[in-house]
Amino acid sequence: MLPMKILEFINIINDIFPTALQEKYDNTGEQILFPQEDITGVFFSLDVDEITIKEALEKNCNLIISHHPLFFKPLSRIHSEEPRSSIIIQCISNRISLFAIHTNLDKIFHNKLAEKLGFVSRQILFPERKLDEGNDVGFGSVVELENNVSLQDLLRHIKATLNLEYLIYTGDITCSISRIAILNGAGGGSIEKILESHDIDCIITGDVNYHNAKYGQDHGISIVDAGHFGTEKILLEFLMRTIDECLTNIPQGKEFRLIKSVNERNPFKVYPDII
Length: 275
What we know:
It is a single chain. With 275 residues, the protein is of the alpha/beta class. The chain is 32% helix and 21% strand. It is built from 10 helices and 11 strands.
């Protein structure tokens, strides 16, 4: 039996997460590719950086699947002492392929953050066109709780379930929550749009700035900023599970491992450190 080539694996991914679904600003797909290399292992991470490259090499993986693309803008130069250039040089020197699944994954996995939190998505927050199979796609989800919870209990639940060191929030900690908008990643900039189209008590998202928070506060809703990293790292679990299921009936799919990064960390820290 011949080993699976990187291109064969990429074709499987493209069938599940069509690149045509990506946003116009995005650069989903091939970043660096050695298509005819035999797969030794597939490494999954949120980002591609010095930490994840080192870990992938240590675990004998020659294909990295990241959520965030390494390239968003065209390169103007490659300089060995510049961080992104260094990553490119390391990948090429070690024949590591990079492939990103970004906003196309977000649209298909629109309900996964809600699912991770144990909530049932009632509707897509920002729906878009259907896939050929008739499945709905879009960004985020809206959930309605069977029993109201206090904001404090909701915060405890989010922090524990997502295994976070901290949360940032707005609102009265004793207020009652029943209807929640959930949007992974950089959802802070969408708060105004969410409130224009949905009647909710709370928003769970990431990357909330001062003006986003103030807008929500002025409109009487609670906002929970669980961080970009915190709301998206969980997508890797679902991604690996989905791909693993697709490989089950492919004999070559048993010849290599799917490995998730354990060294990747949230770049944000809190001072003083939380004890």
